[in-house]
Amino acid sequence: MSEFTDEILSCGYTGKVSADMKSNIIRAIVLHSTMRVVPMLDQLRKGLQLFDLPKVMEMHPDLCLPLFVPGEKDDRVDAAFILENCHPVFSDKGSVKYTKEVNVMNFFQDFLQEVEDCGEAEQMTAGKVMQWMTGQRHKPILPSDQKDFNITVKFNHDCDTNHTVCFPTVSACTRTITFPTAHLKTLNELKNIMGIAMKYGHHAKAQFDSMTKGIENQ
Ligand SMILES: [Zn+2]
Question: Which end of the chain has the smaller Cβ count within 10 Å, N or C?
């Protein structure tokens, strides 16, 4: 506790700093932070008064609440949110590669829709898919963050035919997912590969190999 002594004293607490004074210390900290916030809220209130908003807030608290409190309901990710924010880097229109890429995106859309409709039974939600792709499970709260929230979708066409499978790779920090088109020619392939990739992450390939080996040996 002694490592927090400076912080505790700077909150205006003057008693003994020890565990048995916990409730007194907490009271001092809460008071200190409330006192700091009150002038800010006062300023905010003055600003809102310019637009007569406090009156509107009194009359319609429910309508105004989401303006100030990030809602539980709204930050849940659904299939539509992921798709809206996906920006595929397509090859030239009309090329063979382009056709494959459009197919993959269609399968991905179907996959997300299925996850949304009946994924909970398999512990799969759109939020989990997004977390796997981007590292975050919820929609960004601030409108400015929402505007910048892009998921780049790339396609890898360079698989050779000497191996059984590749998994989509994700880079959460740049919010990029790369689909290996050679292994995603049907919806079932995509569902299977996404399931394994999300469950086992970097170990997906090893897991897949041991699973297929098991089947061969039977
Ligand atoms: Zn491959």
Answer: C
